Amino acid sequence: MLDLLGSLGRFVDGHLLIAPYVGVHGYFGREAQKARALRRALFPARGRPPRVGVFVDDLGSIHGVATMYANVGRVAARRAGPVGVAGTEAGRLRLVTCGAAGATVDGVAGGAAAPPEEGAGPVTLRPIATLPLPLYGGKALPVPSLLDLLDHIAAARYDVLHVATPGPLGVEALIAGAVLGLPVVGAYHTEFGTYARALSGDAMVGDLVELAVREFYERCAVVAVPSAATAVALRERGYGVDPERFAVFTNGVDTALFDPARRSARRRAELGAGAGAGKTLLLYAGRVSREKGLEGLAEGYLALRARRGDVHLVVAGDGPYRAELEARLGPTATFTGFLRGEALAATYAACDLFAFPSLTDTLGRAVAEAQAAGLPAVVFGAGGPRECLVPGESGLVAEAGDGAAFFARIEELVDDPERRARMGAAARAFAAGLTWERVYDDLLALYRRVAGEPAAAA
Description:
The protein has helices at about 1-15, 20-40, 65-80, 145-155, 170-180, 190-200, 205-220, 230-235, 265-270, 295-305, 320-330, 340-350, 365-370, 405-415, 415-430, 435-450, and strands at about 50-55, 95-100, 105, 110, 110, 125, 125-130, 140-145, 160-165, 185, 220-225, 245-250, 280-285, 310-315, 335, 355, 375-380, 395-400. With about 450 residues, it is of the alpha/beta class.
């Protein structure tokens, strides 16, 4: 914590010399806001889509937040017409990240900072430093230049800034919004305080992180959350009492990629099902870390295996808890490591049911992917995962924190293949409505509201 405070102090010291430059940007930002207000007054029915910069730390990774924004970016690129053609959405939404020049985001090359008209791909700002994350095994996030960020936002003429995470890029984007007088949508995807408490084992560290994160989101015009349960939890924890400050945008999933048709006997055998009908494969997919409830999953699974040998656990993913968990479970489980794309989709389809024991996830995107692949899911009745299925139809819900009830639900499905099949079909039907196009449209409606633009015609 002292090292982090020292780094923040050096960050402030390093920006003292650019204070006059920031002040000039602030002046022109306020003038631009006046021009926008005048345009809205003169042309109230224009219905022009707002220009939005979406700032995502660590966009090139494969965690759920990066996956979501990469998919939203793809929809924005598909919706964009030829550059310069009136009436299209070209350049209206732009992903911005920080990293090495020419880096790719899920196969899409990022370009240098530029106005939106020059293309629909992600913008990559140059890093001037890195900020280590001490609780995440040596991981570090690149830090952009505040000058570069201000220059890009001013040149792009954004109407709204969307901050995906309160990392270095997100914090600087929030500062830039305050300087330029632009409204900021802060997306809340991760329970940082809870994660810090679980990873450090120190309640004070968790409380300090929670305080810092709350201060960040208090300065956003709107807090966008991935589930209604998250909005309720944040309000109860003092993130603002006005319901209008929270906007829920739903999940999305690629149903063409995650498809039951990818199921194969060969992949099942590779994962430990054995020959013929084989064992019932239980799947967990996600970060292999303590805050995901994996200690409880291991304890309950070993008790289940002590009673019966017709089940086998598959753990898809990686993380700091993997070595310990793998040693504890031994040959009773298969660990695949990081998977993505078709390899991940084939693993989902090859399994029989999805077990997601997390109590801290604000969404639980893996649950939606499992549903799309035709897997009934078992989750706790807490946070976002509960909203990624239809209880009793496409999955089962156990009372939050009740590990015995969680495994009782799993065993119900292990013992009833016909019910599993019915629930798997219902899961696939439910996931069909979770399109990225709908997520994108919901975000556009939110941006219009925040920017003060009239709603688009039906």
